[in-house]
Recover the amino acids of this structure.
């Protein structure tokens, strides 16, 4: 305990040695935060290329930053060489797509008529082949066998008849005991006839054997295969031909879609011609870059706003400020400053380069939520001096009177001591160099000073430790 008391005494002596005394007086106290602002118009027309197909526009010529223009004056011209080539190609694509569509329509119409006929022909062929096979099995094969048997029998009968006739001739002529020349000729001819019939009979037997053993089985196999192939072809055609017609219908619809798409793309591309010359939509000042959410944005995008530079479609790249636009002051402040401000507060401002000329300002709008940079937007109106011409984009410094009191008791912020219960105390000098702590109610803070609302009297001496 003795050591702790000694340490406390030493700290007190050390602090007293470096402490500063402050005699409390009534003085003017105010809170006037400084805002760095930019002069921007309350009305603006963003310039953006709203092209549907063409994406990059290369600058041929562009007016300088800040140019005063009349409505319909040309602000920018873009190079059309590549665009015109693309437009010609797109036109050719449309022509080709229309021809493809015409071919698809003709093909589908022909298929609608031909494919059913083709299917019917396959069905008829299958029916004919089936009937042929059925007839062969039931009738034709037996008829062919009978015909072969009959043909062989006829040859056998003829051969027998010729042999019998030869025998009878030989008997008749032998009985006469004399054979005349004529009779000899007849016998010779008949003998040759018998030989010939013997050959014919052998050939007939071979033909009969081949017919029954080879020709008819082969014919049966052929007719059967023809029937099977016709049946398979029918089944395949019944499946494939309707599919083929459906595919041709799909191809026709796709050709229609492609044709319409090509035509739409061409029409959109043709409509993009209007963006190759940008004209002023109103009387005003032509500014490079965009003015959005209280900021004039330049950066790398503005560096391309020169001859041969490129401008992208769909994104604002420049701004037209109408001549009747009113200049506002746009500032962005930290949270601790935003807490002190409110709409309606006034103050004064000076333009950059003219600190000797001040003019009144008033807060018109104060953002309740921070931007993505965690800062709060403040919009001020101003009565600008007539002898100091101002233009959009210029900077200015504003001081806003947030709080003002002619006679306030003020002490250094460092003199305040926070207590465990959240209240505040000051160390006051007493008689004979002694000090004591008194509870006070603090007011608002400005810089390194704080207003004391109660608990402190004029002419009291406040000790500021570590000063």
């Amino acid at each position: 305990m003795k050591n702790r008391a000694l340490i406390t005494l030493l700290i007190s002596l050390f602090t007293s040695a470096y402490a500063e005394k402050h005699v409390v007086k009534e003085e003017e106290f105010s809170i006037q935060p400084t805002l760095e602002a930019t002069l921007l118009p309350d009305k603006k027309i963003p310039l953006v290329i709203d092209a549907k197909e063409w994406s990059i526009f290369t600058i041929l010529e562009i007016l300088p930053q800040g140019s005063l223009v009349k409505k319909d004056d040309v602000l920018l011209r873009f190079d059309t060489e590549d665009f015109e080539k693309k437009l010609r190609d797109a036109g050719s694509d449309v022509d080709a797509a229309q021809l493809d569509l015409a071919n698809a329509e003709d093909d589908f119409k022909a298929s609608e008529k031909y494919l059913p006929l083709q299917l019917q022909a396959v069905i008829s062929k299958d029916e004919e082949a089936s009937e042929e096979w059925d007839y062969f099995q039931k009738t034709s094969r037996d008829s062919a066998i009978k015909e072969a048997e009959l043909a062989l029998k006829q040859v056998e009968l003829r051969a027998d008849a010729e042999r019998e006739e030869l025998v009878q001739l030989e008997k008749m002529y032998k009985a006469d005991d004399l054979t005349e020349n004529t009779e000899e000729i007849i016998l010779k001819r008949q003998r040759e006839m018998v030989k010939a019939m013997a050959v014919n009979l052998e050939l007939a037997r071979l033909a009969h054997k081949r017919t029954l053993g080879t020709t008819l089985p082969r014919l049966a196999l052929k007719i059967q295969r023809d029937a099977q192939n016709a049946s398979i072809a029918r089944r395949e055609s019944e499946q494939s031909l309707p599919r083929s017609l459906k595919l041709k219908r799909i191809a026709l619809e796709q050709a229609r879609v492609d044709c319409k798409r090509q035509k739409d793309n061409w029409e959109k591309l043709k409509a993009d011609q209007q963006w190759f010359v940008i004209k002023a939509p109103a009387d005003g000042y032509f500014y490079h870059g965009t003015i959005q959410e209280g900021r004039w944005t330049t950066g790398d995008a503005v560096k391309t706003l020169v001859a041969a530079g490129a401008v992208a479609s769909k994104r604002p790249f420049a701004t037209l400020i109408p001549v009747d636009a009113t200049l506002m002051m746009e500032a962005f402040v930290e949270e601790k400053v935003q807490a002190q401000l409110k709409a309606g507060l006034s103050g004064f401002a000076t333009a950059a380069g003219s600190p000797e000329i001040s003019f009144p300002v008033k807060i018109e709008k104060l953002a309740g939520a921070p931007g993505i940079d965690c800062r709060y937007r403040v919009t001020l109106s101003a009565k600008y001096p007539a002898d100091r011409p101002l233009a959009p984009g210029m900077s200015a410094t504003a001081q806003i009177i947030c709080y003002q009191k002619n006679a306030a008791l003020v002490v250094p912020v460092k003199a305040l001591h926070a207590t465990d219960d959240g209240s505040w105390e000051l160390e006051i000098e007493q008689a004979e160099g002694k000090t004591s702590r008194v509870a006070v109610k603090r007011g608002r803070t400005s810089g390194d000073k704080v207003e004391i609302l109660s608990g402190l009297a004029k002419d009291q001496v406040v000790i500021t430790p570590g000063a």
Observations:
- Helices lie at 2-18, 81-175, 181-271, 299-303, 335-338.
